[in-house]
Each structure stands twice: as C-alpha cells, then as structure tokens.
Fold this sequence. Notes:
It is built from 12 helices and 13 strands. By secondary structure, it is α/β, with parallel strands linked by helices. The strands form 4 sheets. Strands 3-2-4-12-1-13 form a 6-stranded parallel beta sheet, sandwiched between helices. Strands 7-8-9 form a 3-stranded antiparallel beta sheet.
Amino acid sequence: LNLGYITPPKSNPIFSGLKKMIYTKSEPSHALRNNLAEVSTGEGKSVILAITAIVLSLFGMDVSSVCYSEYLSGRDFSDFQPLFGELGVHEYIHYGTFNKLCEEFINEKGDIRKRVVQLITGNKDPSASKVPNNRPKIILIDEVDVFFNQDFYGDTYTPLAKLTDPTINKLIHWIWSNRTNLSHRKIVDSAEYTACRNRFGVWGFLIEEASKNIFVDLMTYQSHSYVVQQDKIGYKEQDGISFVIVYGYKTMFAYKHENELGRISAASVEQNIYIGVDCGKFSYASIPHKFSSIIGVTGTLQKLSPPQATIIRDKYDIRRRSIMPSVYGENNRVFREEA
Length: 339
C-alpha cells in the first residue's frame, strides 16, 4: 500500500494559536501581555478568537472581539453564541466593529445621549444610568489592519444627542417651506425660531448655534451621497449600510427631500427632525488603551510596514509577536515575474 501521497499531520492550529496568544512562559502566572499572532486566512482565526474569549471570560474577564466588518462580526457571534450560552459567559463576550466598541465604552456608566438630553430638558430618565461591569477588560483584535483603517486611526467618534420638541418640528418645517428664498436673518426673525429658542430657556443658545448649521446644510444637502432603504436614509460604512450615521442636518433635509419624491414616509420624516448636540469627541486610537490587555490575530503580521510596526510596538505596547505555522505546510505558490 503506497501512502506516500498522504500529508503527515500537523500540530492543531487552534490550540497552537490559543497558546501563543495567552500563555507566556517567561512571565508571572498572573500576567497577560499584549500580543499579536499571525494566522493564515482559512486556518481558524474565528475559532481561535472564540476559544480565547471563552477562556478569558471564564477567568473573570470582560472580552470585546473587534472586527472591521459588521457582517463578519455578526456572523461569528451567531456561530458561537450557543456555546457562549452553554458555558454561562454570554454576557461577558462582545462582538462588533470599533463603532460599536466606542458605543459600549462611552455608555458604560449610562447612556450619554440620554444624559445630555435630560440635562437640557430637566426630565429625569432612570434608564440613563447603569452600574458598570467591573471585570478586567480585554480587547481581541480580528486583523491588525483595523488599526490603520482611515475610519479608525487619527479619526474621532462623535456621539450626537438628538433634542426633540414640537417647536423644533415647526421650525424645521417652516425653514423647508421657505427654502427657495431664505437667509439666516429670516430664520432668526421668524416666529417659529423665537418660540423654539424660548422653549429651552437658558439653553436657547443651542438653538441659536444650530440655526447657523441648519441654514448651511439646507443649502448643501444635495451634495452628499446616501441610500434610501426600509423608509430610512442610510450611508455606506465598511461593507454595509448604516442607518445610525448622520451628516449634520444634511440627513434631516435628505429625509424631507425624499418625502417629497414619495420614497420616505411622513412618519419617518417626523422621527428624524431634531437639534443635534455633540456629546464630545472620542479618539478611536485611544480606545484600546482603556483595556487591560490587547490581543489579536491577523494574516498580515509579517507584512507590516516599518511605521506600522513602530505604532503597534510603541503606541500600543504590543511587543510580543507570534507566527503560527500553516496547517497545510509550506506555501508552494510561485508567481511569474511579469504577473
């Protein structure tokens, strides 16, 4: 019997990757160092991340697995959700994009948007506060490229509180109806503006400042691209469409425009009329520093450029790097020079 064609077994890539990511022989038993492991595409990154998340959560940690793709993140969580539930760690493992991670971080002690609105209106909302999870927090990075995505490194996340009131709706409807011959002075002199500003008392300056941006965005709302789906205005985000993203007041006027074209209902328009109040700016690049440890898998660790490697090492203190051999052996692909 000729068995020469049978490939000899390789070490299990899943447990090899798990060991490289968590276990550090030279460190004290309680230490968990920042580190990245290279795992080739199709060789178990999703499983490695899931098992790592389970092990860490069983040891009393809160784990966030971050991916650039909302679709891939949702798919992986759905695949492993039954296992998380069976082991009783479902509430300590979170999957999502960096946008979702930022949301969880800034709302850890309560909904920041609700808190801003209740500060302005004086209406108390018990759901705006909550008891934070005090477990040590670990972030798992799915593909190191997420660090250098143009939507992440150097950019900020700006949550927006939406101030709603009947006087705001009346003001926006008046502005839209008079848009063909309008100036900012006319907006400020209108009865609708006066009623809206007076409604918010000492916070009336927010209406005054917003009116300037509203006028500018009214003049330019047609210059931005969007999609209309499910009675909503959406924007492309990574590999999907987000219905949460807004572009100032351009989005609001896009709703008005699409309603006149018959593609958006009047009810949807009413739900998307508001005065926006910025709740601050949060640096995406600073979010990983809020975690006790940064661990990740990627297929491109050896292909990082020198500046990227420097950022990973010096900014995020990821000094331990592991390369996991392929379960399929050496890659024998050879490309022609002219290819």
